[in-house]
Structure formats: structure tokens, C-alpha cells
Design brief:
Elements (H helix, E strand, L loop, with lengths): L2 H36 L15 H19 L2
């Protein structure tokens, strides 16, 4: 395998890992949000995550993840 194809394979592997990690963070965020709603802590005007499709939730969380992932932790 030449250098370019090795780099492409590595990049693809990293991209796949990032997508899987983002999906995991999205799931954790949705679970936390649903727990807050269940306890009555959610703001009445906040949109419900189950109303969106998976891709919409992922895209929204992906845009927000750098600032949201660090403080909350797991």
C-alpha cells in the first residue's frame, strides 16, 4: 500500500471514530435532556428532541458539541 492510500485509510478511520463518538455524545445529551424533562426541570419553550429526526439531532449536537461536551463530562 502506498503512502497516500495509508493516509486515506487513517483519515477514514479517524472520521468514523469521530462520527461514532459524536453519536455517543448525542445520545448522552438526549438522555440527560429527557431526564430533566421527566423531573420537570426543562424550560417549557425548549424544543423536544424526540420531535426531530436522528440526523437533525446529530447535526445540532455536532454544531454545539465543542462547548457542551467539555463542561458536562460523563
Amino acid at each position: 500500500m502506498d503512502r497516500a492510500s495509508k493516509l486515506t485509510e487513517i483519515r477514514n478511520r479517524q472520521d468514523r471514530w469521530r462520527r461514532e463518538r459524536q453519536a455517543e455524545l448525542d445520545r448522552e445529551h438526549v438522555v440527560a435532556e429527557l431526564q430533566h424533562q421527566h423531573r420537570g426541570e426543562a424550560a417549557p419553550h425548549s424544543p423536544s428532541p424526540q420531535g426531530r429526526g436522528a440526523s437533525g439531532a446529530t447535526a445540532t449536537a455536532a454544531a454545539q458539541s465543542p462547548s457542551r461536551a467539555a463542561p458536562g463530562g460523563s
